[in-house]
Amino acid sequence: MDITRRNLLAASGLGALGMMGYAGLTQPLGNTVLTKSASGLADRDMPRPYRAAFRPLPRLAPYQVLTDADGVRVERYSVTARAGTASILPKYTTPVIGYNGMVPGPTISVERGTQVRLRVRNGLTGVRHASHADHESISLSTHLHGHASAPEFDGYAGDLTGPGYYKEYVYENDQAARSIWYHDHASHQTTMNVYSGLAAQYLIHDEVERALLPQGDFDVPLTLCDMMFEADGRVRFDDDEHSGVWGDVVLVNGQPWPVMQVQRRVYRFRLLNASMSRSYRPYLSTGEPVHMVATDGGLMPVSRPVTRWRHSPAERYEFLVDFSRYAPGTTVRLRNASNPKNVDFDHTDEIMAFTVTDAPVDTSDPTWRAIPQTLASSEVMSLDPATSRRRRRLHLKRNDQTNIWNINEETWSDVVASGYTRVLANPGLGDVETWDLETSSGGWFHPLHVHLVDFKILSRNGRPPFDYERGPKDVAYVGPDELVRVLMRFDRRGKYMVHCHNLPHEDHDMMHQFAVGLTPGQPDAHDPITTAPALLDTFPPDA
To answer: Is the pTM of this model over 0.90?
Structure first.
């Protein structure tokens, strides 16, 4: 018989040994059970690892470039959320919803200090999610994840752009170089919107990282996610009663387990985990370390050799791989050892492969074989815990009676019911605080994202942070029964969200907010819902 993922999890009360009697199951991983497939595709229609060619992410060009009265360069961009199709499977095309109809969406790449005005148009009039045809219309809220945006441009969950409307977001890009991303953040629709394709990378460059790290063809953004499919090629959606979405096909830049041709030199990879729920533990098949050089918020103080690392949804890690050590014709695979509380399938232990070529290498490029040790200092990594004005505790858990996820026993529904006044923290402008992020349920991991700030991880369960996370972060992997202590400064006034980035957890209902420098009851000049509302879209279709 066919074992679906829901059948599998429903059977979990039998325990690992009981599950071994089910057709299609192989061996327990210790934390979960490895099963053949979550998709409804016939076996002959499933994609196979290492058959697809690697595909670079598309780049978005500005439609206008100008200089404002203060001499600041301004670049204007426009994207439209609309239905499209993707060629993922060998036999079928897959309906998607993406920025400009693409999955992943087009990458924006800018220099530090360039102001970006991004027009996001909701072109989804009459469109419904394929697996939720009776769902309400699709609203948007665009969050530039990793950017210190003004509250009205931060993608607040209640700041919605309905079909036929648009919103122009303003981004100052005054932070250090970093790999960030823009994705949908509409209240209670985030999982479906992002899973359907509304996610794209956004890169900020500066002189420091340009001098230290590979550029151009050797600076490679990778967007990683997992999906499952219906028998006819449509995306299958199953969040297992809001616990997580676990696909059996691993995609890199929209291609299943692709193969990339590489020269015998050092490459820089920017790896974004855009999965809904799956965390990864990447490693090279050769056993060689990668050299970690940047985290969510940009360059680390020093690079770190790492043989494998935990990589949760929404985290970004930049690392160098030196392919000069391999002979032409060598295949190096980026594999996945997984982590506790994932649900794994036949090929989710593979990510992508690299084939080393004998193409000529430009050895005049100073980065061709350089692994820099000293990188860049940053304000957040220089913060002293002694300057912290307050310690707060955020306890992440699920209410087993209601099946609702919460932070400190409160939910986003509580925030909405309060008229968006309820907060779990109210730091003063410029304050440094220590937050303890804790899950004691034993059954889940939570990638917790704090909007606005970069933070410094001080410890995990009282021990030092892992080598690979010793850089500025905005997502903390809080594993089962872990307490992660982080330090941050709040330098912008307004209300911002904090939430789990396992997106079904966020939507149901593990999200809250904090207010920086606001006195209760005072008018908010940057109210995230009312200050810059969406406007009726009267632009021509291709504008």
So the answer is: yes
